[in-house]
Design brief:
Elements: H1 2-26, E1 28-31, E2 34-39, E3 44-45, E4 49-53, E5 56-60, E6 69-73, E7 76-80, E8 90-92, E9 95-97, E10 107-111, E11 114-118, E12 127-131, E13 134-139, E14 143-144, E15 148-150, E16 153-155, E17 165-167, E18 170-172, E19 181-185, E20 188-193, E21 197-198, E22 202-204, E23 207-209, E24 219-221, E25 228-230, E26 236-239, H2 249-263, H3 268-282, H4 291-295, H5 302-306, H6 308-314, H7 321-333, E27 350-352, E28 355-357
Antiparallel strand pairs: 1-2, 2-3, 4-5, 6-7, 8-9, 10-11, 12-13, 13-14, 15-16, 17-18, 19-20, 20-21, 22-23, 24-25, 25-26, 27-28
Helix pairs in contact: 2-3, 2-6, 2-7, 3-7
Pfam family, one: Choline_bind_3
Cell wall-binding repeats: 47-66
Signal peptide: 1-26
Length: 358
């Protein structure tokens, strides 16, 4: 009987040892929905510390359970995958965690070719904000805005808000906001319109702004009947009180092109007469109100109908100098052949070169 008891005791002890050994050598141990890890070297469960296992870092709380999701350790916020508990670099909601799993604060992070800024509380900054004295604008989807206008502000290639400088056709002041209306920069006066920016080479509210957008003062402007003089404030004091804007290069080329195709072989007077007919139509309420629409009006000018005008206009070829001169003269000074609107071989009242005008 004594022998049997001894055998039973030995077997029981062996079973316990084997069982304990199995648990200890297993490493990971599942306890319901929670996970623990047994350190075989220290012969205890990992608690209240980080542990590198299989090349990955994991954190276990004071009870030895694996921490997942977002948590704080020694004043730092971390995030580990809920599914595996592994530390990884990733964005979670409005926060970003680096390769060590630590929440990023007060720095830029590049995520899929876009830059995002995470503030003092680690939260993603969106909209307009300032970092080290420079203002930026970020969107939630694409991060830092670069080389782009947002509202009345412009952000350069580094994403910094532009201040006290021109960008394209707008001037951005000391606050970074675009300036509109009349304003002065470095002693020069400009005018900007919200829809199109700087007023250039034209009249606006009885004041003329030159090719650089600077208000013209103390000088003669225009030529012929369109000529006038402006004082030190840019106000017209002599000459034409209602001058026209200088013609655009596009309008000059278009009128020169139709003049060349209609009267390229005619005298200068003949070229001016053809250009004048076009301008007469432009100034009449019976015809369209833009140069292009007048010239391309259905059934009016053969070169416009057969495509030769469009081909010449968009080509890189220079147009005959006399035709360009005639176009500029008529566009600047007005028609030299008032009251004539058509080329009419049958009912023409005036002949200049090969054209009869009516």
């Amino acid at each position: 009987m004594k022998k049997k008891r001894t055998v039973f005791f030995v077997l029981t002890v062996l079973l316990c040892v084997l069982s304990f050994s199995a648990v200890c050598s297993a490493g990971w141990k599942q306890s319901g929905e929670k996970t623990r890890y047994y350190d075989t070297k220290k012969k205890t469960y990992v608690k209240n510390s980080w542990k590198k296992i299989g090349g990955k870092w994991y954190y276990f709380d004071k009870k030895g359970y694996l921490k997942t999701g977002r948590f704080q350790v020694d004043g730092k916020y971390y995030y580990v995958k809920r599914s595996t508990g592994k530390v990884c670099s990733r964005q979670v909601g409005s926060y970003y965690y680096n390769k060590d799993g630590v929440m990023v604060k007060n720095r830029w992070v590049k995520i899929k070719k876009h830059y995002f800024y995470f503030g003092a509380n680690g939260k993603l900054k969106t909209g307009k904000f300032t970092v080290s004295g420079k203002t930026y604008y970020c969107t939630k989807s694409s991060g830092r805005v670069t080389s782009k206008r947002v509202g009345d502000y412009y952000y350069n290639s580094r994403g910094e808000m532009v201040k006290n400088r021109w960008v394209k056709n707008y001037y951005y002041g000391s606050s970074g906001k675009a300036k509109y209306g009349v304003f002065t920069v470095s002693g020069k006066t400009y005018c900007c319109i919200r829809s199109s920016g700087k007023v250039v080479n034209r009249w606006y509210e009885k004041h003329f702004y030159d090719a650089d957008g600077v208000l013209a003062t103390c000088q003669w402007i225009g030529s012929g009947s369109n000529k006038c003089y402006v004082d030190e404030t840019g106000t017209i004091i002599k000459g034409n009180k209602n001058p026209k804007d200088p013609p655009s290069e596009a309008d000059i080329r278009l009128l020169a092109a139709i003049t060349y195709l209609e009267a390229g072989n005619q005298s200068y007077r003949g070229k001016v007469a053809v250009a004048s007919v076009v301008i007469n139509r432009l100034e009449s309420k019976k015809f369209p109100n833009t140069l292009k629409s007048v010239i391309y009006q259905s059934g009016q000018f053969t070169p416009a109908m057969n495509g030769s005008l469009t081909k010449l206009y968009y080509s890189k070829k220079s147009i005959q100098k006399e035709c360009v001169k005639a176009a500029k003269e008529v566009l600047t000074e007005g028609s030299k052949l008032k009251g004539y609107y058509y080329f009419n071989i049958y009912y023409g009242k005036l002949k200049i070169g090969d054209h009869w005008f009516s």
